[in-house]
């Protein structure tokens, strides 16, 4: 680097790599992810770039939807709402992990919990009551760290035994309640998506004169036969009239 101008000098063999790094930065790919991409062969690197861009497009789409929602609301229009439904959830035992986490850290925490608990407390395919979920007790972004609570339903008769094997997790009983839920069509828990879903479910609850009991929930529905995880967003509700 030139000490006076700050200009970086590159040897000819470094130019292609340097140009690739500069181009990846133009896509707002973090330096840590760029380091991973540079270590891959061309085909694998291309897949990583495609995945990063897909995530960026999903974030942009969520921001566009949130902006449209806010514009309609500020203009006095009734925003288009999700198809919100209500279900009864029986009392259940939960193994929980409460942590402060930023952005993508929540996904990493979830993957770790799935790897640990999936073999010993398998959720029923497509069943929201036995499915693990995340409660967002506060805003989660690159600037805000929640907190978030990862919850895994376990059979009541096995709860104490399972809890003994995971001393870092908290065993608690969630009382029976109703839950308002929706399928917004995007799984990614980005800040704009979280804000949009919370606005939508919150507006529904206000219109129905129902009070939420706690933060927004991201429910992970396993579909082994289809090889994917579907996402529902939900709010636990206080009893009607309370």
Number of strands: 8
The CATH H-level homologous superfamily of the largest domain: Regulatory factor, effector binding domain
Number of domains: 2
Order of helices and strands: HHHEEHEEHEEHEE
Uncertain regions: pLDDT < 50 for 5+ in a row? none
CATH fold node name of the largest domain = Multidrug-efflux Transporter 1 Regulator Bmrr, Chain A
Number of helices: 6
Please, what is the average pLDDT?
A: 83
Largest sheet: 8 strands, antiparallel
- CATH top level assignment of the largest domain: Alpha Beta
Radius of gyration: 22 Å
Rough outline: globular
Helix content: 25-40%
From the 3D coordinates, which CATH architecture of the largest domain would you assign?
Answer: Alpha-Beta Barrel
Write the layout of secondary structure elements.
Blueprint: H1 15-26, H2 31-38, H3 42-74, E1 85-89, E2 92-99, H4 105-117, E3 133-136, E4 148-154, H5 159-164, E5 170-174, E6 177-182, H6 191-207, E7 216-223, E8 228-237
Antiparallel strand pairs: 1-6, 2-4, 2-5, 3-4, 3-7, 6-8, 7-8
Helix pairs in contact: 3-6
Task: Please provide a written account of the structure.
- The longest helix is centred in the N-terminal third of the chain and has 33 residues, at 42-74.
- The chain folds into two domains: 1-80; 85-237, Multidrug-efflux Transporter 1 Regulator Bmrr, Chain A, CATH 3.20.80.10.
- The protein has six helices and eight strands, in the order H-H-H-E-E-H-E-E-H-E-E-H-E-E.
- With 242 residues, it is an alpha+beta fold.
- It is globular and about 70 Å long.
Short descriptors:
single chain, 242 residues, alpha+beta, Multidrug-efflux Transporter 1 Regulator Bmrr, Chain A, 8-stranded antiparallel beta sheet, 6 helices, 37% helix
């Amino acid at each position: 680097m030139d000490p006076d101008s700050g200009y970086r000098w590159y040897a000819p063999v470094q130019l292609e790599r340097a140009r690739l790094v500069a181009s990846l930065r133009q896509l707002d790919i973090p330096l840590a992810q760029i380091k991973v991409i540079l270590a891959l062969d061309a085909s694998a690197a291309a897949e990583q770039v495609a995945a990063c861009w897909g995530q960026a497009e999903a974030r942009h789409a969520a921001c566009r939807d949130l902006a449209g929602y806010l514009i309609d609301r500020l203009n006095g229009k009734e925003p288009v709402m999700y198809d919100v439904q209500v279900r009864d959830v029986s009392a259940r035992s939960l193994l929980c992990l409460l942590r402060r986490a930023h952005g993508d850290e929540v996904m990493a925490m979830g993957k770790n919990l799935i790897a640990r608990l999936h073999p010993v407390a398998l959720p029923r395919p497509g069943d929201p009551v036995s499915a693990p979920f995340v409660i967002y007790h506060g805003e989660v972004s690159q600037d805000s760290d929640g907190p978030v609570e990862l919850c895994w339903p376990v059979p009541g008769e096995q709860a104490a035994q399972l809890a003994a094997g995971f001393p870092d997790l908290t065993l608690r009983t969630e009382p029976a309640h109703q839950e308002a839920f929706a399928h917004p069509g995007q799984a990614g828990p980005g800040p704009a998506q979280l804000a949009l879903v919370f606005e939508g479910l919150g507006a529904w609850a206000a219109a129905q004169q129902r009070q939420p009991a706690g933060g927004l929930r991201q429910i992970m529905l396993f579909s082994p036969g289809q090889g994917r995880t579907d996402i529902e967003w939900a709010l636990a509700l206080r009893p009607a009239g309370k």
